Amino acid sequence: MSNTIWRKSLVLLAISVLMLAACVVQQPTVAEEGMVEEEAASTGPPQGGTLRLMGHHDAFSLSPGLGAIPSAIRPALMQIHNGLVEIDASNAVVPVLAESYDISEDGLTYTFPLREGVKFHNGADFTCKDVKYTYDFYRDPENAAPVVGVLSKIDSVECVDDYTAVINMVQVDAAFLVLGAILRIVQSDYHAEVGEEVYATAPIGTGSFKLVEWHPSQFTLLEAFDDHFRGRPYLDFLRVDVVPEASVRTIALESGDADGTAWPLLMEDNVRLANDPRFTSISQAGAGPFLIPLNNTIPQLSDKRVRQALYWGLDRQRIIDDLWFGQAQVAHSNLSPIYPDYYNPDIPRYEFDPEKAMELLDEAGWVDEDGDGVREKEGERLSFNVHVGAGNQQFIPVIELAQQLWADIGVEIFLVETPVAAILDGMRKCEMDAAMIAFEHGAIDPDPHWMMHSEGANNFPCISNPKLDALIEEGLSYASVEQRQPIYNEIQAMIMDEAPVIELFFTHWPAIFNAKVKGQSLDAVDTNRLWREIHLWYIEEE
């Protein structure tokens, strides 16, 4: 299958782009393959300066092998490495370290002619050796990389020569190009020498910025890479500070001590600053839901009737209206409505109905036998912990309201503030009862393998459902929307019926920048695309 034909298939998978006028401000000219065209120095964007961003928690790893990349560390991580391809701001798959790509007629062989003349930050030449090493390392189950699930369909990686990589698949994987081929490439000799643990703190990539300093729980500092194959970035430095409190991030923006935020402010501040001419506000529909994964293996949550009752007993529209200033929409599926080819609007919906919730709990055998307001069954209280990122002022009020509403139906929960790294690790290991997270889709494919498959890299709900696994695998075995759509309709219906997680809402991801920061562009999917193009940003001083 030619590159062109496959791209046509991908277009059918792409999401409609919802752009605000403020999304593109004086963006530099970009060639088709994403390379910046040289402009005369007298008319081009100004060179220099430090872009100061803020995240709400630390960059606990800079490894390309992360399965889920928390929002706060994306601005740094995405500048250090490049993949063979990436998804650009218009949702098109574009070659990066690859010059192009070709997919065989049977969909089992991907051929990537590689870009020559690319340098790593340590001066080493980029070749196929680095591609093979990276894929072989991160797809090896013994290395326990969270990204391993995305690479599980790979049979082998071959180097035809120094600048031609061939990836052979065991079976067709419709999502590989948009999930697997974006894996960021490491410098093979350096990684082999220092190992993954050290590499995660001191990476060497081909990206537009290189690591200068990383001070855990304080800041990450990157410097422009002069020899980047796309050309030197306009900025000299990128600094991402850890500022857990949303109110403090707002103060830093308004005082001029920061230029932007990698995590939304409090909703009232987002709305207020969006109307302040000192700032540029970029807002988009969310592709990934805010949700509460439930540990389906613990006695309190192993019965789907209990999980369904939690849906019926939670007023999600009230959360949006009272806590999010209306800047979200209730999630009636694991897929956002901005996936027009795959979103299923006909799934039965959970509305707020406490009576229905209590009927289900009674039916499941959970009864308040001692009159203390909490239901019991076989000596177990219907009580569990919900973990929230420490200091997360967006999530804590949501769980506090859920705590009140669920108490009314006899369910007791405890809010536990926990470092984000510990939440992700604990959920992957099925060591936590539940947690509130924001799960952003970084690709243009509806595949839910990461979280909803029993072998998913982020199987946070700890589910093992052979029928759902089979449907997910079947959905990946076809390329066309016509073949995949009925499968994903069934997947969505099953996920909502089984309720392994509480899908809360799809928020409008706002990003606020000082108005002097220029060059941003943003599509309708998530913040992934925003941070990928920092090499095009610049600071326009008055």
TrEMBL record:
Name of this protein: ABC transporter substrate-binding protein
Q: Where is the signal peptide?
A: 1-21
Q: Name one GO biological process term.
A: peptide transport
Q: Which UniProt keywords apply?
A: Signal
UniProt entry tagged with the keyword Phosphoprotein: no
The lineage is: Bacteria, Bacillati, Chloroflexota, Caldilineae, Caldilineales
Main site of residence? membrane
Mention any one GO cellular component term assigned to this protein in its UniProt record.
Answer: periplasmic space
Q: Which GO terms describe its molecular function?
A: peptide transmembrane transporter activity
Q: Where are the membrane-spanning stretches?
A: none
Localisation per UniProt entry: Cell membrane
